[in-house]
Amino acid sequence: MEKRKSYQELLKEYAMTQNQNEAQAMEWYVDFFLNGLLQQKREEKLWIDIDRALDMKDKEAFMKLSKELTNLIGQ
């Protein structure tokens, strides 16, 4: 014969599932947020390096960094 779960057991399972879902959502949010920060910092560094290449009239570095920035922004 099949054992039926009590209301309390069902409620406990539901709460555990909700907690797991909330933890997963928080993990995704944190991952998204940190990746955004990393991309922003990388973009800022590329702009600084591009400015430096322009100041030094280093066409090769400018072209390389500009391409890298374009690829980063295009993601």
UniProtKB/TrEMBL annotation:
SMART domains: IDEAL (SM00914). InterPro entries: IDEAL_dom, Virus_scaffolding_prot_C. Gene3D superfamilies: Virus Scaffolding Protein, Chain A (4.10.810.10). It comes from the Bacteria. Residues 33-69 form the IDEAL domain. Pfam families: IDEAL. This is IDEAL domain-containing protein. It comes from Lederbergia citrea.
